[in-house]
Structure formats: C-alpha cells, structure tokens
Amino acid sequence: MQRTCPRRRRVQREPSTVTDGRRSLFHRLPPELMVEIKCRLGFVDRHALATACGTKSRHLMKPRAPWLVVPGGTLDTATLFSVAERCAVAVGAPRAMRGHVVILGSSGAWLVTADATATLRLANPVTGEQAELPAITTIPFVLPLHSGASFCVDVHALEQTQFCAPPEPDEQIWRRIPRGTWTFAAGLMCRSFYRKAVLSASPRPECYAAMLLLHGGSAAFATAEDPVWRLASSHGNVEDAIYHSGFFYTITRSGVVAAWRRDGSAGEFTVRWLVADRVDGPHKYLAAAPDGRVLAVIKEWKESYNQSKWVYK
After folding, report:
1. Which residues are bridge partners to 54 per DSSP?
2. Spatial distance between the Cα atoms of 140 and 158, rounded to a whole number of angstroms
3. Residue 199 contacts by C-beta under 8 Å, 6 or more apart in sequence?
4. Looking at residue 150, what is its pLDDT?
5. Residue 56 forms beta bridges with which residues?
6. pTM for the whole thing?
7. What is the rounded CA–CA span in Å between residue 198 and residue 242?
8. Model pLDDT for residues 35-73, shown as the tens digit of each residue
9. Could you check whether the bond before residue 66 is cis, i.e. omega within 30 degrees of 0?
10. Degrees (nearest 5) of the Cα angle 279, 282, 285?
C-alpha cells in the first residue's frame, strides 16, 4: 500500500545559526540507525526531524534529490518542494534568504545568496544554518564606495588578470568595449556583477570550495581555508561552470572547456584544458551525464516556416 504524503504542512521554527556546541540526543545515535530512520520517514516528517537534530546528523535528513526552493507567502518564509515525493513544506527562511535576495547557486542542501548589500552567504533552508562567504572586496580590483553603498570595479585590471593567453576571436568583441572603471550600486551587484556561484560537493561553512562567475566572464575561487576571492586565469570569458567528481568544469564563450582542481599542498587551483577545438553556438552550458561524462550543451535559436524556438544540442 502506497503511503500518502500531505501536500503542505507548515513547520514552525525560528531559524538560527547552529554551532558545533549544540547537543541533542540524535547525534548520539549510530549513523546506521539514522539512515534507517530516514528511509522510513516521508519528506515532511524528515524535515521536522532535521530541525531537531544536531549538526553531526542533520546531513542524513536532507530531502531526497531533486528538490526545489521557492518563495513563501511572506519575505521571511520559503517553501521546499520535493519533486521525488511531490510534497511541499513551508519553513521559516534563514536570515540569508530573507527579503529581496538572489540565489546564485546550490549544492546538496546549501544555497549561495546575495543581498542588497552585495554580501554573499551560504544558507541551508532545511536546517536554518547560514554563514558568510568572503567579501567581494577581497578581489583587489573591487573597491567599496560611500560606506558600501556602491562598488567601483577596475575592469581593465580585472581583464588583465583574467586572460592567460591572447583571447580567441569571439573574445575580441568583448575586449573592444571601452575600458576603465565601472560603478555598481550595492543593490545591483547581485543582479549585474554576480552571475553564478558553484559549490563543491557536500559543502559546509567550515569546509567548502566555491567558484564565482562575474560580469564580463571573469571567475574567482575561494575556500574555507583561504577565505579570499582569487581570480582564475583563463583562455577567454567563462560562460558557464559546474562541479562534478572533484573538479570545477568551465566553458568559455569561444567553447574552450577546462577542469579546475585545488592543489592540497600549494592551496591553489590548477587547470587542465580539455577541449582545444571551438564549440560553436551562441549560448553554452555544461551538464553532467548519469554515466559521468561532462557534456557541452549548445542553445540555438531556430527559425522555420511556421515557428521559431530555442533548441538544445
């Protein structure tokens, strides 16, 4: 007999930053027993138990992938929707998700958010945990103005650090745009300067690696051990990035694919260029196939006699 799942149930809780000092009875249970409990609970009950667990056992209670986070009825709530179980639960949003924020990326149960002050944060809507990522001003070419009300970006210096070789022909178009310094209002940084954030697998505030894609095709790395955004040198403007099997993969506007990995001894990210031939197409994305391959997906606009549409190949 198939167990039904309620469509929606509100879980009342006050989000807070959970520290390792917090203790509960659940963290004393063997991991094998926690897994067994998880398998016997539905989505809503699993979330309710996750709010009561200590940080050592909460990772066992995250929803079964895939699941979605959508805005709630108010600015301080969110709705978690399990695609696998077709259930929804309303939760109190962590402070990093309250108000008018932009979600730049996700991994596991963690989101990367940016708010009107250009602050980047990690947020876990399941457990309520949150933490700040390094400030964008750790990039030497991004300077705060008027007490953080706006930011000045030295685009020329950013570009000189970005390119490790002469750019491809497609990149030359971008380089002909007038150079100098650009000023972004703090509230526009999350929509105009930040493009996408990619997290390593199973991130936590005390152990993560992150890649941030910026306006103009630049990319920067930061880790918990080295909380500074460090620009990556590339063959062109990075159009998309994903994390898969221990590597950050990027594809440039001209179609060059690269794999990035952090060198544990040096603490720096090293790169290996995977595709030398250009991948033609106006829009490019990366995706991980179930068999482990990394695919370059091309989005094109096709016009025919009776219809026009975007196609992927």
Report:
1. none
2. 9
3. 105, 106, 107, 108, 110, 112, 208, 209, 210, 243
4. 94
5. none
6. 0.76
7. 6
8. 787 777 776 677 666 666 655 555 555 556 677 888 787
9. yes
10. 65
Q: Are strands 194-199 and 209-214 parallel, antiparallel or unpaired?
A: antiparallel
CA atoms lying within 13 Å on the CB side of residue 175: 15
DSSP codes joined into one string, 101-131: -EEEEEETTEEEEE-TT--EEEE-TTT--EE
Kindly report the number of other CB atoms within 10 A of residue 4's CB atom. 8
Q: Which two tokens stand for residue 169?
A: 């022909």
d(CA 198, CA 211): 5
- What is the signed CA dihedral for 105, 106, 110, 113, rounded to 10 degrees? 10
Helices (H), 124-201: 155-162, 169-175, 186-188
State the average pLDDT over residues 252-281: 78
Query: Could you tell me the two tokens for 175?
Result: 């380089």
Q: What angle do CA 56, 58, 63 make, to 5 degrees?
A: 155
